[in-house]
Amino acid sequence: MGYSIVPVNLIVKSMRDNGYKNTAFALAELIDNSIQHGASRVDLICLETEQYVGVKNVFRISEIAVLDNGKGMDKTILRQALQFGNGTNLDADSQTGIGKFGMGLPSSSISQAKRVEVWTWQNGIKNAIYSYLDVDDITNGKMSEVPIPDQVAIPEKWLKICKNIDSAGTLVVWSNLDKCLWKTGKTIIDHSEFIVGRMYRKFIHTGQTKIVASVIRDNNLESPEMQYELLPNDPMYLLTNTSVTKDLVAQGLEDPMFMKYGGDNGYERKYSIDFGDKTHEVFVRYSIATEKTRKGVSAGSKPHGKHAKENVGVSVVRAGRELDLDRSWVNTYDPRERWWGVEIEFSPGLDDVFGVTNNKQYAVNFREMGALDIERELKDRGQTMQEYKDELKADNDPKVYLLEIANDIKNQLSLIRNVIAAQAYKLEKPEKSEGRHDINDTEAEKQATLVTEARKEEGFIGQSEKNAEGKTPEEKKADIIADLIGNDVPEAEDFGQEIFSSDVLYQFVNANLETRAFFSVSPVGGKIIIKLNTNHPAYQQFVEVLSEDVDGTINVEDLLNRLIKARDGMKLLLMAWARYEDEQPDGKLKENVQDARVDWGRMAADFMRTN
Fold first, then answer.
1. Among 190, 455, 544, 591, who pairs with 460 as Cys (CB 3.0-4.6 Å)?
2. CA 520 to CA 515: how far, in whole Å?
3. How far is CA 449 from CA 194, 453, 477, 504, 606, in A?
4. Could you tell me if 53 and 61 are in contact, meaning their C-beta atoms sit under 8 angstroms apart?
5. Whole-model pTM?
6. Closest to 68 measured CA to CA, from 189, 192, 212
7. Measured between alpha carbons, how far is 362 from 356 in angstroms, rounded to an integer?
8. Dist CA 369 CA 376 (whole Å)
9. How many CB atoms lie within 10 A of CB 377?
10. 312-334 pLDDT per residue, tens
């Protein structure tokens, strides 16, 4: 008796656990095939039957079907399509579209169901040919090869359900859905709408492919319980008429809700990669939320903010279809990550470079680059960037082609995050209303102003008073605005007017400072402007949570998180000073530092005394 290298039942079991994230991602494989075969319309159909569950009858999903109006398949292609690892796009020269691996139809199907049936036709549905796979038949030895396709009529129930059957097309039906986590058609479509709409946004937006989702019940086959056309879901938020548009319109906001970062000409960067005796192009695009989108302290909790929260990450696009929304590039602790978008697009010829998996859900090499701290890696290795590249190239590591792109993305994201953080002071303040303090008139600034006025009466004159002495109000205001412009503070003129008109002497400003200092101090126009460095780690750890206004919209959990973050930030600042003082050499310098601490402590005591 001979032994197979791997028993068939174990192969099938392994393939049933092929790593599809959920039913929506498995269905995407079928949609891939439809688009690859020229379909302009794809119908996703969930058929429900009435079942007795617990103490009542409910409708549960029993079959899932995908119908398209593509060019259909002949007997040879149909049999290949149902064979694991076979297909029509295996040669490198054929790999220009969505398909490639010859695994999509069978592997995605058995990941959700025990039986998959396919009818396909090229000259009218009366000439439809049929074949199938059955997991039980394979595991018990009854099925060892794909059945030879034969002319078989489409079942009557599917003819009643499918009213859009063209002269050519394909119908795929999954039954015995033992691996499908979602139990109702509505749940499947609700989840699929967001994911599938994002995967195929480019095809839907251009009108190349229409995807229509329906829920049908077996007691009323000709009238859908629900049916609608999927809208594109754009994580870059640059398209109009998308799945977020309705939410934006309801709030009086503009569509699209992001803008191109770098302008129309600068938001897209092109890279050329020489690989496999060919030159391939990679495109990276950047976007950032508009001011209207982010305005207000609770923008993130509004419908469009919640929508953006589910689209955080770098969108990895292959042949126009999204493979993955890669979160390895995301600062997961920061809710403002939702306000940027990055998209990288490449052709199938670079699958080995990006590390595309056979189920087309990940680009593993690109994901590794997102998780890699390149600067730390170089430091640990004691290498320059070129030396690291040479080593990767010597090892035939395809990630060598991604180093420059990854480094550029990280640098661009750093700049984008700085813009988002620097604008937060202006954009996330609450709308003014009766009884609410003006944004410049917080209790802390008022207290500091009172203490400063008292010290001035005692003869303590600061540089801010000296610089403003003898100047007219217009000159003072001009000095303030010039200082803000010099530090690239957003809306410097309007902001400068606010600072000048305020009754308080102190003002905090977020600024992108090119220094290692945590903050800087500018005594201008009779005011003291404290610029908090958004590039400094302390900003994220400590100051940012205090710069956001707290009102009745914040929940207890968010408030507690802010308090914990502020507490830890204060400790880290004090410990940083302690270490700074500890490292000073014995002598005059150390004494000066210690004296400065004592003097600052006295000043702090005056400022923090509330009675």
1. 455
2. 9
3. 52, 6, 18, 6, 11
4. no
5. 0.70
6. 212
7. 6
8. 13
9. 12
10. 999 999 999 999 999 999 988 78
Question: What are the distances in angstroms from CA 536 to CA 169, 300, 423, 570?
Answer: 58, 24, 16, 14
Tokens of 9: 């039942």
C-alpha 287/C-alpha 263 separation (Å) is 9
Among residues 343, 300, 347, 290, the alpha carbon closest in space to that of 319 is found at 347
Q: Which residue has the higher pLDDT, 213 or 11?
A: 213
Would you say how long the chain is, in residues? 611
Nearest to 348, CA basis, from 275, 401, 290:
275
User: Are 16 and 135 a contacting pair, CB within 8 Å?
Assistant: yes
Beta strands in 7-162 (DSSP E): 41-53, 56-68, 115-121, 129-134, 150-151
CATH 3.30.565.10 assigned to 8-228 = yes
Cα 219 to Cα 54, 143, 185, 273, distances in angstroms? 21, 33, 15, 56
Looking at the DSSP bridge assignments, the partners of residue 132 are: 117
- Give the E-state strand segments of 469-512 in sequence order: 506-511
Strand partners, 72: none
DSSP state of 523: E
The secondary element (H helix, E strand) that includes residue 366 is helix 364-371
Answer whether the bond into residue 256 is a cis peptide, omega within 30°: yes
Q: What's residue 264's pLDDT?
A: 85
CA dist., res. 162 & res. 60, Å (int): 20
